[in-house]
Amino acid sequence: MLARAQALISESALRGNLTALARRAEARLLLPVKANAYGHGMEAVTRLAAPHPDVWGFAVAMPREAAALAALNPGKPILLLTPPTPEEVRPLADLGVRLPVASVAEADALPPHARAHLKVDTGMNRLGARPEEAIGIGQRLAERGLLEGAYTHFATADEPDLSFAHEQFARFQTVLAALPPVLAHAANGGGVLSLGPLPGMSLARPGLAAYGFAPSHLRGVAPLTPVMTLQARVTHVHTVHPGETVSYGGLWRAGRETLVATVGIGYADGYPRNATGSAHVLIQGERRPVLGRICMDQMMVDVTGLKVRVGDWAEVWGPGSLTVTDAAAWGGTIEYEVLTGLGARVERVAVG
């Protein structure tokens, strides 16, 4: 069966981004592939990224993601970023998944073959042990030979004011100074771009930056290219006469005879429904408006003057003149939400 929509994942763009970010950080990368690799497809991304010399391993958020990634066997370490339940600890350790630890109870529950990364809360106030508690937990892990790494997470490294990020890093360094040498990592994508090399850090964890996106004030710091091009097929072409409306609610009314192409993608696939009235796509290289309300499975596009046929591709976003940043702005949201919301009906295809 032909795919109605495809996300083309560019190997050259991904590898270029990874190289640029590793150089900027002066560290190897612990590449986040949570949320289906930020919507890009965990299987495709890990297969493309695993051979990259700057990729140390992969990071995920959920135990199921860790188990699935271990089954893919990319040959790289896997770190679980959020705490597992007690019942999940041993099965994950048996798979070789690195486990986060933020309490004495979590440390004591680890089996002897586990490898732990101490999670330090330096100000994000989401997960982790406070610095004064983390030192004792880390030392306890080290005594058992289980401590492989330690990490924290910046709350404001993608903001213009970096004062709090520097405070967080100083707190993290205090913890590291009390521990034996470990794989230390702190910088997310914003941190890599805004702070550059951080002393003592073995790894960096650039998330959305690895897929080609940076905060507006950090664009150009490193040469990043969006990795995904999203395209959807034309499924129907028809003429709408003056005065007729298109889609639910009759929001758009034709002022002239209009050639309309129905395109096989909608909000069930992750395209923001709130982009109604603003969205555009590229067809035959031309930027054309989406007409009326975006539907669950489809959207209708003005292709007047073009020779469009059923089966043609419309580019929904890509690295060129129409980007996921545009789609997010039209939908009143951010790139993270649009990309991670891309549904399973969209086929992920690796390309050169």
UniProtKB/TrEMBL annotation:
UniProt-recorded name of the protein: Alanine racemase
Keyword set, alphabetical order: Isomerase, Pyridoxal phosphate
Organism of origin: Deinococcus carri
Role: Catalyzes the interconversion of L-alanine and D-alanine. May also act on other amino acids.
Family: Belongs to the alanine racemase family.
Gene3D superfamilies per the UniProt record, alphabetical: Alanine racemase, Lyase, Ornithine Decarboxylase, Chain A, domain 1
Matches recorded under PROSITE patterns: ALANINE_RACEMASE
Swiss-Prot/TrEMBL catalytic activity: L-alanine = D-alanine
Active site per database record: K34 (proton acceptor), Y248 (proton acceptor)
Binding site for substrate: R126, M296
EC numbers: 5.1.1.1
Segments forming domain Alanine racemase C-terminal: 227-351
Pathway linked to the protein: Amino-acid biosynthesis; D-alanine biosynthesis; D-alanine from L-alanine: step 1/1
Modified residue annotations for N6-(pyridoxal phosphate)lysine: K34
Co-factor(s): pyridoxal 5'-phosphate
SMART domains named in the record: Ala_racemase_C
InterPro entries: Ala_racemase, Ala_racemase/Decarboxylase_C, Ala_racemase_C, Ala_racemase_N, Ala_racemase_pyridoxalP-BS, PLP-binding_barrel
